[in-house]
Each structure stands twice: as structure tokens, then as C-alpha cells.
Backbone:
């Protein structure tokens, strides 16, 4: 029994890693080929997918915890990053001008991003719940 529980959590972690990599790929693709997407999708997909990746990352790290823990931490982390963008000092702005720095820290505060993050966390939670329902029911 103990072995099957550890196996279940290991398998969930594998699924979460695949979801993280897929979400990162989709997020980067939405930025690179945004002109090929409908404008609404192009403007919002990156931030929605970023928040989804944050949620899945917490699920990966805390696979034994409830989804509510991942939801709460995702909101704290995502909103914290956004609010931190109000802090504009030379040293952090030098990091923000790099591609990786801009992806992680953002460039400036936008209230609409809070809505996008909320949508991403909700979508990721729903997908997670549906996936868990189908994978754990056996």
C-alpha cells in the first residue's frame, strides 16, 4: 500500500512536469506567434498561461497538499510579483530588461494582469481537478 501511494505521487509529479513544460512552450509560442492569433488571445494568453504554470509548479512541489494550498500560493505568488512591479529601481530594472527577467519579474504594474492571473489559476485548477478525477478513479 505504501509503495502504491509513493508511486501515485511520483506519477502525478511526472504529469505536472509535462504540464509545466507544455505550458511554458504554449506561453512562449503565444508571444512569438501572437500575430497569428486572434487579438484577444494574443493580448491575454501569455499572462494566463504564466499563472497556470505557477499553479502547476506549486502542485508539483506540494503534490501531497490540497489543491486549495496550490491555489492560495499561486495567488500570493502571482499577485506579489505584479505588485512588486511598482518597485522601480535601477538594479531591478536592469534585470527586467533581459528576456528572462521580463518573463519572471514583468516590466511594470498592470491591474489587468491580476484578472489574467486569476483566470489562469482558475483554468489550471479546473483542468487539474478534471485530470485528477479521471486518473485517480481507478
Residues:
Amino acid at each position: 500500500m505504501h509503495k502504491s501511494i509513493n508511486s501515485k505521487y511520483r506519477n502525478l509529479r511526472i504529469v505536472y512536469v509535462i504540464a509545466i513544460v507544455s505550458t511554458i512552450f504554449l506561453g512562449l509560442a503565444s508571444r512569438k506567434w501572437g500575430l497569428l492569433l486572434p487579438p484577444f488571445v494574443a493580448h491575454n494568453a501569455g499572462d494566463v498561461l504564466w499563472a497556470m504554470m505557477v499553479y502547476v509548479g506549486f502542485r508539483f512541489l506540494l503534490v501531497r497538499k490540497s489543491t486549495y494550498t496550490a491555489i492560495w500560493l499561486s495567488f500570493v505568488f502571482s499577485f506579489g510579483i505584479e505588485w512588486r512591479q511598482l518597485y522601480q529601481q535601477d538594479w531591478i530594472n536592469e534585470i527586467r530588461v533581459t528576456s528572462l527577467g521580463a518573463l519572471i519579474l514583468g516590466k511594470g504594474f498592470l491591474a489587468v494582469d491580476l484578472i489574467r492571473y486569476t483566470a489562469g489559476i482558475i483554468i489550471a485548477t479546473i483542468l487539474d481537478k478534471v485530470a485528477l478525477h479521471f486518473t485517480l478513479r481507478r
